[in-house]
Design goal:
about 200 residues; alpha+beta; 2 domains; 6 helices
């Protein structure tokens, strides 16, 4: 729901697709998320791409016909239940933060192309490498799947960017990279999260 609010705001400001976002989320106050995910959503936004022969602005959006603010169809969301869950998780020292949904500019962490070849996963750059950085690749690892071997889990349709590859930022992350990244972004003692 927070992602919908953020993407809606961005598209209403700068996109020709703003009509997709007629429905407005009616929630009083901020919705807090675990800090690593709040940071990812804070960095989700439009990106001006450098080192191309023509100017390009990439804007996150939703597919046409999205309903229920991007939640699964049978999902019922309750702000009160969410707040109770947040309080419980804060009691076990998981840090939370609100997302600034009005921040329109973002980074390229969400634009990596995940390539799965057998049991190998790579994060490649579908645009010139100068637009990407290692920190973005670290953020992206939060969304890989697999308890043992890590598997790809595309989080954005980057097909419209074409099939070019401008380099690789990460290859064969260790099992449990998602958990390690989560703990590291919480700034916990590195003995707790290093693989």
């Amino acid at each position: 729901m927070v992602m919908y609010q953020k993407v809606r705001h961005i598209n209403c400001l700068i996109s020709v697709e703003s009509g997709k976002f007629a429905a407005k989320v009616n929630v009083t106050g901020d919705i807090e998320l675990p800090l690593p995910f709040a940071y990812c959503l804070s960095e989700l936004g439009h990106v001006r791409i450098a080192d191309l022969t023509k100017e390009m602005l990439v804007v996150p959006t939703y597919p046409t016909g999205i309903r229920n603010f991007g939640l699964l169809e049978d999902t019922t969301w309750s702000h009160a239940k969410h707040n109770r869950a947040v309080r419980s998780m804060k009691e076990i020292d998981i840090a939370f933060s609100a997302v600034d949904v009005k921040k329109a500019r973002g980074s390229t962490w969400w634009l990596y192309r995940q390539v799965q070849t057998g049991s190998s996963v790579r994060l490649t750059c579908p645009l010139p490498e100068v637009n990407f950085h290692k920190g973005g690749a670290v953020l992206h690892t939060l969304f890989l799947q697999g308890d043992g071997d890590v598997t790809a889990n595309e989080i954005a349709d980057i097909g419209p960017l074409g099939s070019d590859t401008y380099g690789m930022m990460l290859q064969n992350p260790p099992p449990g990279i998602q958990f390690c990244t989560f703990r590291a972004l919480l700034s916990e003692d590195n003995m707790q999260w290093q693989p």
